[in-house]
Automatic annotation (TrEMBL):
InterPro entries attached to this UniProt entry: CvfB_fam, CvfB_S1_st, CvfB_WH, NA-bd_OB-fold, S1_domain, WH-like_DNA-bd_sf
Any Pfam family: S1_2
Name of this chain's protein: S1 motif domain-containing protein
The organism of origin for this protein: Vibrio ezurae NBRC 102218
GO molecular function, one term: nucleic acid binding
Lineage: Bacteria, Pseudomonadati, Pseudomonadota, Gammaproteobacteria, Vibrionales
Domain S1 motif: 3-64, 69-132, 145-207
PANTHER family attached to this UniProt entry: CONSERVED VIRULENCE FACTOR B
């Protein structure tokens, strides 16, 4: 089945001087221009292409990969604004993505970079973007457990911290006290479920919580020590940035963890760093 607004694997049915025609099933044939062919084509060959409709509602194929396909979020720069809405750079040379005014939470300026969700409008059949994310999230029951690892997309900054999209399905919050490292709108990273509240709101952490956090970090430290011939130039005096760069954890957690490893006799803590006890 053809999926407009997504990558599809289509077979070559005809080769011409200006490109190849691909079998688009119910949509007939679609042309892939010659300049987008990286190798000598053969009839019957399968090619991955992105499908979309142009301004004349004609089906088009490209081997360019958009910043976000239908059903995905992506950071996009606003190229122009007119009476219809804002047009953003979609990552396709001949096709910008429209964000209608009705799908804008705020008015934008040209050159501004924003997070956009791409979807197909049921009424018009057009692929458009939106910055109104609420109607696409929290539509299914939460199914998370404490310390479960999840994929996060930083979507908003608030007075409390950062709102993040969890696995493309739900809203979650990383409170300022739980922020480690640098976060920014559009950043994708791994995180953990801290708790699901009675009202359904989800608190997030960028590292495991409780004993599991310490155990996980202990294993990482010992594994890296073994890999680095028993020495790491980090200790309880190291800067938070230096610690985060290596272990993606806070200095407080790192200090508690190496303290536990020291008491257990696994390491020594010296002025130049930590050493593995043989």
């Amino acid at each position: 089945m053809i999926k407009i607004g997504q990558l599809n694997a289509l077979n070559i049915t005809q080769i011409t001087d200006f490109g190849v025609f691909l079998d688009a099933f119910d949509y007939g044939s679609v042309l892939l221009p010659k300049k987008q062919l990286s190798e000598e084509p053969e009839v019957g060959q399968s090619i991955h292409v992105f499908l979309y409709f142009d301004s004349d509602n004609e089906l088009c194929a490209t081997r360019e990969t958009p910043i976000a396909q239908v059903g995905e979020w992506g950071l996009m720069e606003i190229k122009s604004i007119n009476s219809t809405g804002a047009f953003v750079n979609w990552g396709i040379e001949k096709k910008d993505l429209l964000i209608p005014y009705s799908e804008q939470r705020a008015r934008f300026n040209e050159g501004q970079t924003i997070l956009v969700y791409v979807y197909t409008d049921n009424a018009s059949g057009r692929i458009v973007g939106t910055t109104k994310f609420n109607k696409w999230l929290d539509k299914t029951p939460q199914h998370y457990t404490s310390n479960q690892q999840v994929d996060l997309l930083i979507a908003e900054r608030s007075d409390l911290g950062y709102k993040a999209i969890i696995n493309g399905e739900h809203w979650g919050m990383i409170f300022s006290s739980d922020v480690i490292g640098k976060l920014f709108i559009g950043k994708r990273l791994k995180g953990y479920i801290k708790q699901v509240r009675e009202d359904g709101k989800i608190d997030l952490s960028l590292q495991k919580i409780g004993v599991a956090k310490m155990d996980d970090l202990s294993e990482k430290i010992l594994a890296l020590l073994d890999k680095k011939e028993g020495f790491l130039p980090l200790n309880d005096k190291s800067t938070p940035d230096a610690i985060f760069k290596v272990f993606r954890t806070s200095k407080g957690t790192f200090k508690k963890t190496i303290g536990g490893l020291y008491k257990a006799g696994h390491i020594t803590i010296e002025s130049d760093g930590i050493h593995r006890v043989k």
